[in-house]
Amino acid sequence: MVKGLVDGKVVVITGAGSGVGRAACLLFAEHGAKIVAADISSEAVEVTAAEVEKAGGEAIAVLCDVVSAESVESLVKAAVAKFGRLDVMYNNAGITTRPGLSFMESSDEDMDKLAAVNIKGVIHGCQSAIRQFDAQGDGGAIVSTASVAGLIGFGGVLYGSSKGAITTLTRTLALEFASKGIRVNAVCPAAMPTNFGGAALKNSELGQKHTAALHPLGRIITPEECAAAALFLASDLASNITGVNLPVDGGMSAGKSLSASR
Ligand SMILES: NC(=O)c1ccc[n+]([C@@H]2O[C@H](COP(=O)([O-])OP(=O)(O)OC[C@H]3O[C@@H](n4cnc5c(N)ncnc54)[C@H](O)[C@@H]3O)[C@@H](O)[C@H]2O)c1
């Protein structure tokens, strides 16, 4: 396997205390990145940073609530204070709605909570990163975790709408900052067995079997596979790729096959 894809790069990863964020911290560090792991759970993010260091990598843990612009600005400042610059911002933190919440029962409070983390949180990450990239003057890379639900109709309406906002932001922001050498891309995973949404998928064998069958490749996505796609987009291998929402979905968003092979 190729190593060192992000050698020496300073990478901020939000939602680093669990699931995709944790997997990304470990994978990016394995590829030589200096990791700034951020999460709203200080305990969880400390564990992730310790895991990176134990594996021979370099990491700091930062408590950050992406809902707050000040908190995200402090996060980028912490990265620069520790490692001298910022190369990659990975906006990965995200939440879903209460389990079983129907569209018609959704309250303003439900919508505000979701939008604050999934939309505003990503915008804060982009703004703080671009401010720092501008100060450095040599470009940079932004990756966000959207979802297959931001590409096709899949799962909850509110959640899909929040992720659709990220896929649109990815395209438009990429165009706005291309001339500065700032690349903006997103990964769009299908359902993964993480702590997301009360870990419903993680804790249900039947749910995993049912979900696996929805994917043309026949199995559910792992957080490591999502992190690998983010690593590619963050790395110089993707140096001429911007404005892309990359599905990591076992072919789900490709459409429906007429063949009866599965
Ligand atoms: N798991 C899935 O089925 C799935 C599918 C598609 C997309 N996603 C997306 O993947 C991303 C990662 O989710 P995951 O599956 O690893 O979930 P997870 O719940 O395992 O991890 C999410 C992490 O984000 C942190 N977080 C939540 N709110 C935060 C905030 N305001 N500020 C900072 N950190 C915060 C949590 O503490 C947690 O550590 C999310 O954006 C999610 O929407 C997940």
Automatic annotation (TrEMBL):
Lineage of producing organism: Bacteria, Pseudomonadati, Pseudomonadota, Gammaproteobacteria, Cellvibrionales
Family, similarity comment: Belongs to the short-chain dehydrogenases/reductases (SDR) family.
PROSITE patterns for the chain: ADH_SHORT
Name of this chain's protein: SDR family oxidoreductase
InterPro entries in the cross-refs: Sc_DH/Rdtase_CS, SDR_fam
Organism superkingdom: Bacteria
Organism: Zhongshania aquimaris
Keywords noted in UniProt: Lipid metabolism, NAD, Oxidoreductase, Steroid metabolism
Presence of keyword NAD: yes
